[in-house]
Amino acid sequence: MNFLIKTIVIATVISLMPLVTSVVVPEYAGFNIEAADDKKKKKRTRVKLPSKKAQKILQTVQPFLEEELWIEAVEVLAVIGTDPKFTDTDRARLNWYMGYIYFAQEKYRLAIVEYEKLLNSGGADDKMQNQARFSLAQLAFIQEDYRKSVKYLLQWIDNEDEPSSQGYSLIATAYFQLEDFRKSKTFIETAI
């Protein structure tokens, strides 16, 4: 039943796209290109790389992930979680991969736990944290917690240099579910 409702809502949003689309021409009075560029510039941070030992483990796990051999992938990754020699960055990668595995297996609550651990750890770089926020938004949407989905998506947009139309569409659909049609329209227009 929930699947049917979601399908109808998404079909409705898509069918309304032609009604809400219009060409938006920016007003050039007072438009400052440098100010716009400065606004887009974010604090640059270095990507945190996993240790060499963790890199070898992550390379070993890739074929298992590609073949969707989840049990084997978890067994290989378990070493990072148990050995105290691994860094916070290594553990953040572990949380990322475990979140991905649980998401793929539709074990949504476990995926949420892993992605939230990643966000709360000090080992994840900005890009990985933002990817986790987007995944958490998707998971909240799947669980019909649209307010939480919007919360994560707004954080994702704030931290993303070039947010995708997929993200804007998802937030528009979440606002639609919350019956905030004005915000839904705004975000679907941005997506288009």
UniProtKB/TrEMBL annotation:
This is Uncharacterized protein. It comes from marine metagenome.
